[in-house]
Specification:
Number of strands of chain C: 0
GO molecular function (chain B): copper ion binding; cytochrome-c oxidase activity; heme binding; oxidoreductase activity, acting on diphenols and related substances as donors, oxygen as acceptor
Oligomer: heterotrimer
Structural class of chain B: mainly alpha
Helix content of chain B: 55-70%
Distance between the termini of chain C: 71 Å
Function (chain B): Catalyzes quinol oxidation with the concomitant reduction of oxygen to water.
Radius of gyration of chain C: 23 Å
Pathway (chain B): Energy metabolism; oxidative phosphorylation
Radius of gyration of chain B: 25 Å
CATH topology of the largest domain in chain B: Cytochrome C Oxidase, Chain A
Largest interface: A-C, 54 and 50 residues
CATH superfamily of the largest domain in chain B: Cytochrome c oxidase-like, subunit I domain
Order of helices and strands of chain C: HHHH
CATH architecture of the largest domain in chain B: Up-down Bundle
Shape of chain C: flat
Largest sheet of chain C: none
Strand order of the largest sheet of chain B: 1-2
Number of helices of chain B: 20
Main location (chain B): membrane
Strand content of chain B: under 5%
Family (chain B): Belongs to the heme-copper respiratory oxidase family.
Largest sheet of chain B: 2 strands, antiparallel
Amino acid sequence: MSEQNFSSGPLEYQTEQSRLNILGFWIFLAAELALFSTLFATYAVLSGRTADAPAPFELFEPTSTLIMTFLLLTSSFTCGIAVHEMRNGSKKGLLTWLIVTLLLGFAFLGFEIDEFITYVHEGATLQSSAYWSAFFILAGTHGLHVTLGAGWMILLVIQLMQRGITRVTSRKVFIVSLYWHFLDVVWIFIFTSVYLIGMVM
Amino acid sequence: MKLDEFFVTGEPLIYGGMVAIVLVTSAIIFLLTYFKKWKWLWREWLTTVDHKKIGIMYILSALAMLFRGGMDALMMRTQLAVPDLNFLSAQHYDEIFTTHGTVMIIFMAMPFLIGLMNIVVPLQIGARDFAFPFVNALSFWSFFFGALLFNVSFVIGGSPDAGWTSYTPLSGAALSPGPGQNFYLMGLQLAGIGTLATGINLMVTILKMRAPGMKMFKMPIFTWSSLITCFIIIFAFPILTVALALLTIDRIFGSQFFTLTGEGLPMMWANLFWMWGHPEVYIVVLPAFGIFSEVIATFAHKRIFGYSAMVWSIIIIAGLSFLVWVHHFFTMGAGAFVNSVFSVSTMLIAVPTGVKIFNWLGTLHKSKIEFSTAMLWALSFIPSFVIGGVTGVMLGMAAADYQFHNSYFLVAHFHYVLIAGTVFACFAGLTYWYPKMFGHKLNERLGKWSFWLFLIGFHVCFLPQYFIGLDGMPRRIFHIGPEWFTLNFLSTIGAFGMGIGFAIFVYNIYYSFRYSKRETTGDAWGGRTLEWATPTPVPPYNFATLPEVNNIDAFMEMKEKGETTFDEKKLQPIHMPSNSGKPFIMMAILFFASFALVFEWITLAAIGLAGGLIMMIIRSFDYDEGYHFSVNEIKQIEQSRRGLDHE
Amino acid sequence: MEHKTKRIPVKHIIGFILSLALTIVAAWAALGSDLPKGWVITGIMVLAVIQAAIQLFMFMHMTESASGNGHIPWNMMFHGFVIVAIVVAGSLFTMSYGFGHHHNDSPAHQQQHGEHMHD
C-alpha cells in the first residue's frame, strides 16, 4: 500500500481511525440511499391510491414547499461554510455557522410539522389511504433524519466548546456535515418527485 | 392483559419447552454462581470488543439456533410422517414452519457465517481487529437480542404463523391480530441493525486494513467472498429495514401500505421482501463458496484453480442477485413480459455459478486429496449443490413455475441449495478453523460419523421431496394424503438421520474439548493463508509484526522463506481498543423497547427508545483512546505461545 | 496538497448559487410553464440529479484525495444510485407495468391470448 503523508492535509484526515470512520460513513450513506430508494419506490407504486382522501394537488402548497427547499439548501451551504471555517482553524467561525445551520434546520422542521398538521386537518392522514401512508412515511423519515442530524449537531457544538477543534472533533464535524448534505440530496428528490410531480399530475 | 394471554397456554409441547427453559436457565445461573464466574463472563465476554471472541459468541448462538430450528424441523417431519396424524395442531404446525424458516435463515445461517468471517477475515488479511471494534460488539448484541426476542415468542405472546415470508394481507393486523407477527417484525428489525453494521464494518476492514503488499487480487477467496457479501448486505438490508418498518406501522399505527382497505397493495410487500430476500440468498451462499474454496485448496494441497475467474464470478453473481427477485412470485401474474425478463436474468446466474463449480473441480484435478472431515463436507457439497442448482433453473422458467410453485419441489430445491451450500459450509468452516479458535482439532472419527449420517440423512430427507412435489403435494399443509405416505415417511427417516448427525457433531465439541491433543503450532492443517501464520491461541493483537505479501497463498511463501509474524527487530507497541459494556446495555435497552412495541405498549416502547438514544449520547461523549501493548509484553506473549521460552 | 484552504469558499458559493438556480428552473418548469407533462417530469428529474451531483462533489468533497480513501466513496455512491434505479424502476415495472397491461386487455385480446396457450 502506498504510504501517503496525511499530516499536511485537513485535520480530520490525519489519523488512521479518522480516515476509517469517514470511509465507513460514506458506505453508511450508500446504505441510506438504498433505504430511501425503497421509500421512493413504495411512494411511486402507491401514487394515485388516495381512496376517499383528497388528491395531493389539492393540498400541496407551492410557496411553502419552495420556502422549505430554500431553507434546506441554504443550511447545506452554511454547513459547508462551517467545515471551511474549521479547516481554517477558526473555532468561532465553525460554531457560528453550525448554529446558523441548526436554526435553518429547525425552521425547515417547523414548516414540515405545520404542513403535516394542515394535511391532517384536511382529511389526509397516515391512515386515510395507501398514498397518504407512503407520503407521510417518506417525508416523515426524511424529517426524522433531519431531527436526528440536528440533535447530533447540538452534541458536537457542546463537544467543540469543551475541547476545541481537535483531530477527533474535526472528524465528527466533518461526518455530521456529510450527513447534513446527504439529507439535502434526499430532499431534492422529495421536492422533485413528490411535490413538483404531485402538482403537475 | 391477563396472565394467560401473556403466556402461551394449552400446548403440552410448549409446557415442556417452558420447563426446559426454566431448568436450563437456572442451571446456567447456578453454575455461574457456584464457580464464581459472573465477573469473568462480564469482563471476558459480554464487554469484549475482540473480533475472535465475538466470532465465537456468534457461532455458539448460531449452533443454539440450529438446534432450535432443527427441533422445529423434526416436529414438522414427525407430523408429516403418517397421513392424518395429529401430533401437532394446525395452528402449532403453522407457527413451527414459520419459526423454522426464520430462525434458520436469519438467526442461524447468517450469524454462523458472520461468526466465521469475524474470526477469519482479519486474520486472513493481516489486520489487528475490525475497523470499528466497538461497532462489532454492538452488531453481535443486536443480533443476540433480536434472536432472543424472536425466540421468546414461543412461550410469551405466541409465535408468528404467517410463514417466514410473512406475506400480507395474511400477516396484516386484520388477519393476524395479536403479538405473533410483531415478534417477527421487531426481532428481524433488531437483528438487522447489527447485520448492516457488520457489513459496513467488515467492508472498511477489508478495503483499508490489509497487510502491506496484499493487493485486492492477492486476497484469499474467503475474504473476497466476505467483501462481496458485505456489498450485498449494505444494499439489501436497508430494503428489509423499510419493508419491516412499513408493515409494523401498518399493524400498530393503522397505515394502509399492504392492507386490503384504503387502496393498499398487499403484493407490494412481496415485492419489497424479495428485493431483499433474493440478495439474502447470496448473502448466505457466497461466504459458503469462499469457505469451500479455502478448504478445497488446503486439502488438495494446491493453489486454487482460476483465481480471477473465481473472483469475477462472485462479483457477477452479486450484481445479478439484485435483478431476479420477481422469480419468487411469478404466479402473482405481472404478465408475460415482466416474467420473461426475470426468467432470463434468473437463468443467467447459473453461468457464473457453473464457472465456480469447474474451478473447484479444476483445483481437485490431479491433486493429492487429503480426506479430512472438513474436506468431506466440501467434496459432498459439489454434487449436492449441483442438484439444487439445476432444479433451481427449472423453477426459474416462469411457465413451468406455475406448476412447481408452492409445491414440495420448491421445498426440496431450496433445502438442497441452502443445506448443501450453507450448512455444509458452516460445518466445513467450523471444523477447518476450529483449531485456530480453540487450540485443538475436532475428533476426526466422530466428525466423519456425523458427516456421513448428516449427508445420507440429507439426501434421504430431501430427494424424495422433489418427487412428492411433482406428485402434487403443496408446502405448508399439516395433513398429508395417503397417496404421499411412502415418500414422506422416507423423508422423515432422513430428517432424523440429520438430527443424529448434528447431535454427534455437538458431542464431538465436548469430546474434543476433553480428549483432543492440544495444538502446539498455529498451523494445524498445513494452511496456505495468513490466519495460519499466527500462534495458537491467537494473541489479542493477532500479529506481532506483519509480513510483506506478494502472493495469494501468503503463508506458503512465508514458510518457504522461513518468516514468521514475530520479527523481534520490527516490534513496536500495538494500540488496542478498550472493552466496553455499552453495546450490551444499549441493545438490552432496545430489546425492552422492541418487546414493549410487540405488545403495542407505546409509552413503554417510547421510554425504551429514549433510553437507546441516551446511550448513543453517552457514547458520543466517550473519548476513550484505548491502550497499548508494550514491546516487552508482546515479546512475552509471543515467546510463550510459540513455545520459545524454554530455549 | 494545499496547506491552508482559501479564505473565501468560492466552490461553495458557486455550488449554492447553482443549486438555487436549478431549484427555480425546476419549479418554473413544473408550475409556470406549458411544456408537455412527460417533458416536464423527465426534465425536472434530470435537474434533481444535477443538484445531487453538486452536493456530492462541491459540498461533500467526495473525491478529495487528502482523505486517503481514493475512489471508494465515489464507487459506493455510484452503486447506491444504481440500486436506487433498480429498486424504483424495478418496483414500478413489476407492480404497475404488468398490471396496467392486464387491466387494459380487451376481451378479444384475452381470447387471442388463450389461443396462444393452446398452440
